[in-house]
Amino acid sequence: MLIFTGLFVLMIGYLVWFQVAESRETINNPYNARLETFENRVIRGSILASDGQLLACTKVEADGTEKREYPFGCTFSHVLGYSEYGRTGIEELGNFQLLTSNAYFAEKFINELKEQKNIGDSLVTTLDVKLQTAAHDAMGTQTGAVVVLESSTGNVRALVSKPDYDPGEVAAMWGELSSSEDSVLLNRALQGLYPPGSTFKTITLLEYLREHPHGAEDYSFQCSGKVAVGNSSISCYHGTRHGELSLSGAFAKSCNSAFAEMGRSMDVRRLRNLTEQLLFDTELPLAFPYKKSSFSLKASDSEALHMMTAIGQGDTLVTPMHMGMIMGAIANDGVLMTPRFLERTESYTGQTVVERYPVTEYGSLLDAAEAEAIKEYLRLVVTEGTASALLCDPYTAYGKTGTAEYSSDKKKSHAWFTGYVTGDKPDLAVCVLVEGAGSGSEYAVPVAKKIFDAYYGIE
User: Fold this and answer.
1) How many H helices and E strands in the chain?
2) CA 256, 259, 261: angle at the middle one, nearest 5?
3) Angle 303-310/256-265 helices, nearest 10 degrees?
4) Which of 70, 132, 140, 404 could form a disulfide with 158 if both were Cys (CB 3.0 to 4.6 A apart)?
5) What is the rounded CA–CA span in Å between residue 143 and residue 436?
6) How far apart (Å, rounded) are the C-alpha atoms in residues 255 and 312?
7) Which residues pair with 69 in a beta bridge?
8) What's the pTM value of the predicted model, to 2 decimals?
9) What's the CA gap between 119 and 287, in Å, rounded?
10) What is d(CA 26, CA 21) in angstroms, rounded to the nearest whole number?
11) Which DSSP helix (H) or strand (E) runs through 136?
12) What is the pLDDT of residues 247-304, one digit of tens each?
């Protein structure tokens, strides 16, 4: 009797837990046939920007045909996703809510008597139309990705991946889109893995400061434009001779020679521990499908690989979203907030809030003192270094540029910028990646500037 009573209690407990924690995910599984029942009873709800602007809706034709429409066309393509030929983006993340109706009881009752569909709930996202449009337009026809995060909340204000597509035309263009040579359906912001280039020097700098807690003031390096590595050499960008540099000067001017020398003597075990602390080779707190960033340096690897890794080359690979999250944590005194795409679900009329999605803290990636120290170096990149184009009175920008080689042809490189802006508005962390463009200061920084200017209303 005790055994059967215990089993019964466990079964009831599991059913309650399943209904609270697991039922929505199970129902939302694309292989669950129950979704067809939802679609037969409910008109798919709308997706809204944080200010209420319509991003996606379902138009019902006179003959009852339903067509999903996206008023901004390709501007929000990868973050909104599509709902035909499968689902991606927010269309997938909020599928259960969009196919659930919390309209007034009387309205639902009358619709059921008339055998008419009810209107699904609306999803209010964290997306900002002005910032998304600025990021999308700034990228132009270039291939790459942009991530914009509010560092104190984790709110995703913009997410762009290029090339893009019109979600409303997916059904008509599926064959072309699914077989495109430029992988147009790939969300490069979360699933594109790239060598980080000099943006990784932020991590190398942090490790150097940890290994030399009192050595920053005494640091000095004489840059001749390159440093020998076996039978080859590592050069500064365009072979620039930086001359005598302090630690802050080496970082601001992104001196490859100085950071390669740091990598030569750096404790690999400690550097690996730091990358793990910063979520390399680790599950990220993201609701969308993503790729893990990877760091694979070992103590037994060649000296050349140690030096290349320290400047963001070697075998290290990152996603733009991950780099944006690291920068967001630095801006937020070392604390990473879980990236959030949804603010709330409300009835289609907007009069009833069905569910709110809270701001959540993931945890500390580095302590507040370390974050404060890194901020000073990031600011120098803007005031004295490679991101000087971001000097502006209405706001204060911080960041790191990067130029990442990705092939044997050293003329080919990805352009990076990762940083944040502070002022009289919530801090905004930004990561820009432009594939195969050239230097970060020339191609990625202008994209970030247009986003910062749009945020602060600068024409």
Assistant:
1) 19, 19
2) 105
3) 130
4) 132
5) 8
6) 12
7) 57
8) 0.91
9) 25
10) 10
11) helix 129-139
12) 999 999 999 999 999 999 999 999 999 999 999 999 999 999 999 999 999 999 999 9
CA 251, 253, 258: angle at the middle one, nearest 5?
60
Q: Which two tokens stand for residue 293?
A: 């960033």
Give CA–CA dist 177/181, Å, rounded: 9
Lowest mean pLDDT among 35-39, 128-132, 160-164, 323-327: 35-39
**Bridge partners of residue 228, in order along the sequence:** 233
Q: What is the model's pLDDT at position 34? A: 59
Residue pLDDT, tens place only, 392-442 = 989 999 999 999 998 777 678 999 999 999 999 999 999 999 999 999 999
CA angle (450, 453, 456) in 5-degree steps: 150
Each residue of 62-72: pLDDT tens digit? 888 999 999 99
Q: Which amino acid is at 30?
A: P
Q: Give dist(CA 44, CA 94) in Å, integer.
A: 11
Q: Report the alpha-carbon distance of residue 397 to residue 130 in Å, rounded.
A: 19
CA distances for 446 relative to 256, 321, 419, 431, angstroms? 22, 19, 13, 12
Angstrom distances, CA of residue 379 to CA of 270, 334, 399: 26, 16, 7
CA dihedral 80, 421, 272, 218 (to 10 degrees): 170
Residue 397 has which token pair? 């920008």
Residue 445 pLDDT greater than 80, yes or no: yes
* CA quadruple 84, 176, 157, 148: dihedral sign: positive
Q: What is the pLDDT of residues 63-96, one digit of tens each?
A: 889 999 999 999 999 999 999 888 999 999 999 9
Q: Does pLDDT of 24 surpass 60?
A: no
The number of beta carbons lying within 10 Å of the beta carbon of residue 383 is 14
- Six-digit token string for 37: 């029942």
What is residue 20's predicted lDDT score, i.e. its pLDDT? 60
The rounded distance, in Å, linking the Cα atoms of 254 and 123 is 43
- Tokens representing 195 are 């060598």
Collapse the DSSP code of 407 into the 3-class scheme (helix H, G, I; strand E, B; otherwise coil) and give the result.
coil
- In the structure encoding, which two tokens stand for residue 140, read together? 């132009």
According to the 3-state scheme, what is the secondary structure of 47-97? EECCCCCEEEEEEECCCCCEEEECCCHHHHHHHHCCCCCCCCHHHHHCHHH
Q: Which residues pair with 335 in a beta bridge?
A: 364
3-state helix vs strand vs coil in the chain, percent to 5: 40, 20, 40
